[in-house]
């Protein structure tokens, strides 16, 4: 997915390599969604999606980064976050996106749930190459 | 000039007009600390430092990390730790060392070649000692921060006895694994200690519930059940409820209530306590 970053507002990249980074990503997502004036429900949804994806990047991707910022499209403002790692990738996307499927000890709802929490969701992954998940939530 | 010649030179620089130098040094440091440390205290600190420094140089030691400098380092460690604990900045800490360089500066104007070389050599030593104070300072700050984090972890997860047989844990802030672990242990321990059969976990103060938090909550509740206690989750705000639904998390047969008050009412009812509104008798 091509992310339409807002021209006047540089996206920021943060490392996601330890537990504290997940908290930082969540806080950054909160700040962004407040700046974007998302409703309280949408803020919570975006923050939660970011939290899920950041933890996947850390736990399954073996660490990576999160690039997040404001986006603009069709006259609307929105928030976007791109999670990227160069870990093992996801061999079976359909399986990974199935509610309740986990290769670890999770609930298996992070990835599929994150898709339902946002307006746009793109998963770009390949076994052995890594994983990139892009999410956008638009202000209403 | 050989290395050895440098030592008498440095000692001479420091001792030539000893009292005046020391006073100038204390003045400079006192000025930057703006009276937040008493003059007497500062006098004592710096005099000890001065004596130890001259002593080491007399013994032919000018390496900040050498054994012969250990007394100086010990004094600087104490000084840096105190400054860090009292909330001084790194600059206000290192100034104690760098100010000495400053008060020695006039020698650059009217000193002999030998004096200048001695000054440069001493300057290098003082730079190293200054860096040493900054390092000690930051290590102390880190210790303070991490012990505060531990305290916060304890503080932020109180278990409250609401009634005979009813306890509650109000959760506030982000729930990471470490914290949830603490909450879970405290809750289970409190069930035993108080002999309670009803526990309320209130999440009014939790900004987001993701799958990890939900999983921790579910585990805690299952563990409490194994101990014969019933858990109610309260304080699920509308935005959290909607997010939980969208994520697809199922709380199964876990009882949830909108507010802590509702949860308490239910817990009391389950433990056989009847609540009646007073009719104003005796007023
Ligand atoms: N960045 C990633 N790299 C490799 N595999 C991944 C990545 N993200 C997800 N996966 C795979 O997809 C599966 C499903 O992810 P999902 O987030 O839905 O569940 P989970 O993380 O196992 O549990 P939870 O419900 O706690 O998030 C994971 O178990 C993992 O095998
Ligand atoms: Mg996950």
Automatic annotation (TrEMBL), chain B:
Keyword Phosphoprotein: yes
InterPro entries: Bact_StressResp_Reg, RsbRD_N_dom, STAS_dom, STAS_dom_sf
Limits of the STAS domain: 156-267
Keyword vocabulary terms for this entry: Phosphoprotein
Coiled coil start-end: none
Protein name: STAS domain-containing protein
Organism listed in the record: Streptantibioticus silvisoli
Source lineage: Bacteria, Bacillati, Actinomycetota, Actinomycetes, Kitasatosporales
């Amino acid at each position: 997915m091509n992310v339409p970053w807002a021209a006047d507002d540089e996206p920021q990249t943060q490392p996601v390599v330890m537990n504290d980074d997940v908290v930082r990503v969540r806080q950054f997502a909160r700040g962004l969604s407040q700046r974007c004036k998302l409703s309280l429900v949408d803020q919570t949804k975006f923050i939660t999606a970011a939290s899920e994806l950041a933890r996947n990047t850390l736990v399954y991707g073996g660490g990576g980064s999160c690039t997040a910022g404001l986006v603009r499209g069709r006259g609307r403002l929105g928030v976007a976050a791109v999670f990227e790692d160069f870990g093992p990738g996801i061999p079976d996307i359909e399986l990974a996106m199935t509610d309740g499927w986990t290769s670890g000890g999770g609930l298996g709802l992070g990835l599929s749930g994150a898709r339902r929490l946002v307006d746009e969701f793109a998963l770009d992954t390949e076994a052995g190459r890594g994983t990139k998940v892009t999410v956008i939530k638009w202000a209403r | 000039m050989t290395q050895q010649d440098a030592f008498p030179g440095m000692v001479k620089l420091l001792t030539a007009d000893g009292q005046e130098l020391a006073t100038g040094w204390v003045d400079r440091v006192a000025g930057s600390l703006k009276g937040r440390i008493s003059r007497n205290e500062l006098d004592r600190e710096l005099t000890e430092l001065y004596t130890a420094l001259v002593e080491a140089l007399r013994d032919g030691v000018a390496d900040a990390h050498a054994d012969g400098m250990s007394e100086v380092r010990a004094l600087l460690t104490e000084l840096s730790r105190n400054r860090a604990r009292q909330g001084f900045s790194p600059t206000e800490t290192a100034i104690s060392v760098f100010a000495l360089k400053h008060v020695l500066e006039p020698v650059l104007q009217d000193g002999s070649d030998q004096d200048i070389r001695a000054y440069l050599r001493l300057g290098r030593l003082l730079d190293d000692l200054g860096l040493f104070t900054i390092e000690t300072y930051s290590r102390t700050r880190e210790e303070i921060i991490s012990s505060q984090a531990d305290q916060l972890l304890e503080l932020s997860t109180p278990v409250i006895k609401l009634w005979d047989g009813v306890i509650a844990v109000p959760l506030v802030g982000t729930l990471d694994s470490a914290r949830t672990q603490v909450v879970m242990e405290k809750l289970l321990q409190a069930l035993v200690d108080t002999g309670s059969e009803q526990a309320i976990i209130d999440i009014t103060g939790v900004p987001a519930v993701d799958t990890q938090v939900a999983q921790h909550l579910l585990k805690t509740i299952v563990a409490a059940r194994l101990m014969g206690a019933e858990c109610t989750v309260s304080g699920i705000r509308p935005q959290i409820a909607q997010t939980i639904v969208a994520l697809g998390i199922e709380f199964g047969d876990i009882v949830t209530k909108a507010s802590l008050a509702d949860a308490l009412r239910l817990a009391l009812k389950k433990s056989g306590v009847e609540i009646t509104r007073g009719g104003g008798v005796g007023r």
